[in-house]
């Protein structure tokens, strides 16, 4: 192949780049190109056309197996849909469900299957690879034979799941024991409709390799030739043991000769014919034996391809055609194609740099990629690094730094560690003299992966004995802070992100791991590096001076535990009292962090009614209105159903109430019924009817006891040994209404079969023949943890456990994390807890018992309190100046119920300003009376007034200062701001915190304090002679900007989106020289805020 020089002629004028393929490499190239273009402002920004044959935007193929669980393509997207149209006009155009079928390299044009003609200045092949199929089946067989599949795309998985469900598949055979084969088998085995899965593998052990390619001439996997296996026989066996532990059958050293199909009508899979003359019966076959480069378009266009497959590229990634390049799995560089993401992204980076560099700068060349990798396979951590198979190579081919062979010294030696109980397997390969680490492999414990890879790359002698690298106590995954890693050590192998890049992102202003991921791409590929990246982030934040103090917030330089003790000992009963006693400024009104935390402390100590004036405005929105706010500003209502036991009469009552108020109903995971879509003004009426039917508040809105779940126990079950329902009812009745640092739940199982999942709750009780066993700290969440066996004396121990938790946990700390924090360095938390509440090591058990008895004795039904009080009912009015009600969104019918439409994906950030009101005759207009605000010096108050079609929120601080803003939150277009918490900054600027996603808006100027992309209108307001006046324009003028009918969510958009063909995506700008294009949808490529919402 003869290469032309890299073409610099087009670098100083705007080029049109055509990218063929829409996978991870293609998107990686675009991101790299944009980044380099943004850095080099002297280079004109390219115009890009991206063409892909799938109906999905670029998605994470590494995480494809996760699709079996969530079945949402958007959850796999590498960039949200709105990202593709968030660039300047003409910079990026996307064509989906079409593919380039011919390239004219002389005219520099491409033709697609649909007939489009696209001219280009630069063409990049990023077509990836297709699933390999064995020689005994034809490609057409995949379309014509029922039950025959490959494992490569989302569509492959959807067809697979549909077939398994509809055909009642009894047994599935996965051919191939490599990475994809094992992952496919594990995922398929978790489908409820599939009772049995078997893996058929030709080798002796699991062929763990990064997507091995198949030789097109011999139809054999290239991994057998270039040694791309990542585990030896021992490591492979350990992985297979874990696979078998999942109930998956594994047949090794078995060669498939053909498939067998039914001879009646349409071909249907019946099994596999094996080389030992045996027949393996199955209903479904999935081939996961490797991949082949997609080089067919290049080949038919006269571009050189390798005899074994792949588009031949040089060190600059250019093909044999001028201005045509190849990157990713479709490219053959030095006779090799790479089937994993890291080398593909490296290729993308090299090409993007070369296309944007200054003419005087040298070209970058592709270098031999590092094939080290770390991944999680069927629940088992697996890693390989460096020359991990050096002990299997000829000595002449092994690269040993600074090595000159002396005498008969063995060039390499392997040090292994095998713990079958872990299970853990480590094999590290050293130079014969033990001075250099060359590579290795790990199964189970892979925490040292980044450190060891860095050592290999440094190519320097070890300063410790080899044994010290492999022998020791394995650390927990989140205990390693990466401090002993070099700055250049690779953390994310998918996107080649170093430790230094993570640290630099913190210097650049990133304050969360989410911001680091968005800036560096670390953790956005396979996700395996997230624990290490998070540890490095936390450590670097501390070193940069961003101390993670245990202070509650800027208003209180004390922890929650300190404030609890101060309030308890000094008998403080209000937020203002605690602010004066312990706050940084006695006159501060607090914030959205400290107000709910202190409100919870006061409830735990005194349990006053949270809707009393001194407490009401300290509550987060859910507590403030005793219901859970939903995304359209309505609320959900969850009545208490102790232990899930409910009479038919009560079920009928719930149904009647839901029908009367048009509520969406759903059974919860806590054995209750949730009623969604209640308007705030309807809540007291709904509670009144629920009360007449015998229900009371379920406290689903509070950081309080939610439910005590139970199985049916001895009441009905033939296996039951304890009355689980009776005890669950007793516990729920005892602890209902008790507020804590976070929500907490219980469970009671009537036998060791554990149907109520008691060990997964904050506290759980399981019946045995000898009595009850108590478990604590097993709540789920971001770090789920099973509860630990504590003792058998149930109620008293649970009393003490809950009360100690209330007194000593941090704000929003679940019980599992709290237990881990007890004792020395969190290692003996349960033992410490046992000593305190069982052995009374601190002598506080009596006090804990008495405190719980006192708290239990203060219970009252909060809903009933509102129903009985006309004054409290008035707090739920939508508007204070009219009885008219307005919806915040329309509703759509779905599965026989009504719900709000989805939030529009084209929701670009909104900045409202008084100048937006055209013309306008602004004057003081009376909107209500001061008494409507229920003024009090005990706390702030708020209300909403309706001005024509515009909703205006009015706030009054305890000191009497008045503020008025729009009611509409510009982030999610919900009319909810008046329901948010009020706070102030360190300089005393008051703000309101939106109850949906906690964006803070200044009450003075309307600016968003946490996101400059948003702003609200703030109006002048005054009080005269008991009347309230706001300076406003004519109704029609402000309605045109803030009107409810203008901004409410509408079902028309939802229905239109459902009717859109999947291939409709906006072509952002016409392509110069291109032929006809299809109609494009204006609703598909959408502009939205690129920052994560939560």
TrEMBL record:
Pathway: Nitrogen metabolism; nitrate reduction (assimilation)
Source organism (scientific name): Gymnopilus dilepis
Region of interest (Disordered), ranges: 887-909
A GO molecular-function annotation: 2 iron, 2 sulfur cluster binding
Stretches assigned to the Rieske domain: 925-1030
CDD domains per UniProt: Rieske_NirD (cd03529)
EC number(s) given by UniProt: 1.7.1.4
Keyword Iron: yes
Cofactors that this protein relies on: siroheme; FAD; [2Fe-2S] cluster; [4Fe-4S] cluster
The protein, known as: Nitrite reductase [NAD(P)H]
């Amino acid at each position: 192949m003869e290469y032309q020089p890299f073409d610099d002629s087009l670098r100083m004028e705007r080029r049109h780049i055509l990218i063929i393929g829409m996978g991870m490499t293609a998107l990686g190239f675009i991101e790299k190109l944009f980044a380099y273009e943004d850095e080099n402002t002297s280079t004109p920004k390219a115009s890009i056309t991206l063409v892909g044959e799938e109906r999905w935007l670029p998605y994470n193929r590494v995480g494809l197996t996760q699709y079996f669980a969530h079945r949402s393509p958007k959850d796999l997207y590498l960039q949200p849909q709105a990202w593709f149209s968030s660039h300047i006009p003409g910079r990026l155009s996307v064509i989906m469900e079409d593919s380039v079928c011919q390239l004219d390299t002389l005219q520099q044009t491409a033709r697609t299957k649909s007939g489009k003609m696209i001219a280009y200045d630069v063409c990049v092949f990023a077509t990836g690879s297709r699933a390999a199929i064995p020689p005994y089946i034809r490609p057409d067989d995949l379309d014509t034979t029922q039950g025959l599949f490959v494992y490569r795309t989302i569509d492959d998985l959807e067809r697979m799941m549909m077939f398994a469900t509809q055909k009642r598949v009894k047994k599935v055979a996965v051919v191939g024991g490599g990475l994809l084969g094992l992952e496919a088998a594990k995922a398929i085995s978790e489908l409820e409709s599939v009772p049995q899965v078997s893996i058929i593998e030709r080798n002796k052990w699991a062929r763990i390799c990064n997507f091995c390619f198949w030789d097109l001439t011999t139809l054999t996997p290239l991994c057998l030739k270039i040694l791309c296996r990542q585990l030896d026989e021992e490591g492979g066996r350990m992985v297979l043991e874990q696979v078998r532990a999942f109930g998956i059958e594994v047949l090794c050293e078995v060669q498939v000769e053909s498939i067998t199909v039914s001879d009646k009508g349409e071909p249907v899979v019946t099994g596999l014919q094996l080389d030992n003359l045996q027949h393996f019966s199955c209903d479904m076959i999935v081939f996961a034996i490797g991949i082949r480069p997609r080089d067919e378009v290049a080949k038919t266009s006269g571009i050189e391809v390798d005899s074994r497959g792949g588009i031949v590229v040089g060190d600059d990634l250019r093909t044999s055609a001028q201005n045509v390049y190849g990157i990713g799995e479709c490219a053959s560089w030095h006779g090799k194609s790479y089937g994993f993401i890291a080398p593909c992204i490296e290729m993308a980076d090299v090409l993007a740099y070369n296309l944007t560099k200054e003419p005087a700068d040298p070209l970058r060349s592709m270098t031999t990629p590092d094939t080290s990798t770390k991944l999680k396979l069927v629940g088992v951590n697996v890693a390989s690094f460096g020359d991990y198979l050096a002990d299997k190579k000829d000595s002449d081919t092994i690269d040993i730094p600074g090595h000159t062979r002396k005498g008969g010294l063995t060039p390499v030696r392997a040090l292994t560690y095998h713990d079958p109980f872990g299970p853990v397997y480590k094999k590290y390969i050293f130079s014969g003299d033990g001075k250099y680490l060359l590579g290795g492999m790990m199964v189970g414990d892979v925490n040292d992966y980044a450190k060891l890879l860095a050592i290999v790359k440094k190519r320097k002698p070890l300063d410790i004995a080899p044994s010290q690298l492999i022998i020791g106590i394995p650390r927990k995954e989140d205990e390693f802070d990466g401090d002993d890693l070099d700055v250049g050590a690779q953390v994310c192998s998918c996107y080649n992100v170093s430790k230094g890049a993570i640290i630099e992102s913190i210097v650049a202003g990133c304050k969360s791991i989410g911001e680091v991921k968005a800036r560096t791409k670390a953790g956005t590929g396979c996700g395996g590096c997230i624990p290490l990246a998070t540890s490095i982030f936390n450590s670097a934040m501390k070193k940069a001076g961003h101390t993670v103090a245990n202070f509650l917030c800027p208003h209180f330089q004390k922890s929650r535990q300190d404030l609890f003790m101060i309030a308890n000992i000094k008998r403080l009963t209000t937020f203002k009292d605690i602010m004066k006693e312990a706050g940084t400024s006695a006159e501060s009104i607090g914030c959205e962090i400290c107000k709910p935390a202190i409100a919870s402390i006061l409830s735990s100590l005194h349990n006053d009614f949270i809707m009393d004036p001194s407490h009401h405005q300290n509550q987060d929105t859910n507590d403030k209105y005793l219901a859970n706010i939903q995304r359209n500003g309505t609320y959900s209502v969850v009545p208490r159903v102790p232990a899930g036991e409910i009479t038919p009469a009560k079920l009928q009552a719930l149904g009647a109430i839901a029908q009367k108020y048009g509520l969406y109903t759903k059974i919860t995971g806590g054995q209750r019924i949730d009623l969604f879509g209640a308007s705030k003004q309807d809540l007291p009426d709904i509670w009144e009817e629920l009360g007449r039917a015998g229900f009371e508040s379920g406290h689903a809105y509070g950081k309080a006891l939610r439910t005590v779940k139970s199985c049916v126990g001895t009441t009905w079950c033939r296996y039951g040994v304890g009355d689980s329902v009776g005890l669950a009812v007793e516990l729920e009745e005892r602890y209902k209404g008790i507020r804590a640092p976070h929500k907490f739940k219980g469970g009671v199982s009537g036998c060791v079969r554990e149907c109520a999942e008691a060990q997964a709750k904050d506290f759980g009780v399981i019946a045995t023949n000898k009595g009850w066993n108590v478990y604590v700290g097993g709540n789920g969440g971001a770090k789920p943890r099973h509860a630990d066996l504590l003792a058998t004396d149930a109620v008293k121990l649970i009393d003490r456990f809950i009360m100690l938790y209330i007194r000593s946990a941090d704000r929003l700390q679940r019980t599992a994390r709290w237990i881990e924090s007890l004792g020395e360095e969190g290692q003996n938390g349960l033992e410490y807890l046992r000593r305190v509440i069982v052995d009374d090591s601190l002598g506080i058990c009596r006090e804990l018992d008495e405190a719980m008895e006192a708290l239990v004795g203060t219970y009252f039904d909060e809903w009933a309190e509102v129903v009985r009080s006309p004054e409290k009912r008035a707090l739920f009015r939508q508007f204070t100046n009219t009885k008219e009600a307005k919806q915040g969104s329309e509703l759509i019918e779905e599965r026989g119920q009504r719900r709000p439409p989805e939030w529009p994906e084209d929701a670009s950030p909104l900045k409202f300003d008084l100048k937006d009101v055209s013309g306008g005759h602004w004057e003081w207009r009376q909107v209500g009376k001061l008494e409507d605000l229920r003024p009090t010096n005990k706390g702030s108050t708020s209300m909403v007034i309706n001005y024509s079609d515009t909703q205006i929120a009015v706030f009054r601080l305890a000191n009497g200062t008045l503020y008025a803003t729009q009611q509409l939150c510009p982030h999610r277009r919900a009319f909810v701001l008046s329901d948010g918490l009020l706070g102030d900054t360190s300089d005393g600027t008051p703000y309101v915190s939106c109850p949906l996603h906690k964006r803070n808006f200044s009450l003075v100027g309307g600016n968003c304090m946490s996101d400059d992309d948003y702003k609200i209108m703030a109006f002048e307001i005054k009080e005269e002679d008991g009347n309230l006046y706001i300076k406003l324009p004519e109704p029609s003028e402000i309605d045109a900007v803030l009107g409810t009918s203008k901004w409410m969510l509408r079902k028309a958009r939802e229905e239109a989106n459902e009717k859109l063909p999947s291939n409709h995506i906006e072509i952002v700008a016409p392509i110069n020289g291109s032929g006809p294009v299809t109609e494009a949808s204006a609703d598909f490529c959408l502009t939205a805020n690129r920052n994560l919402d939560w």
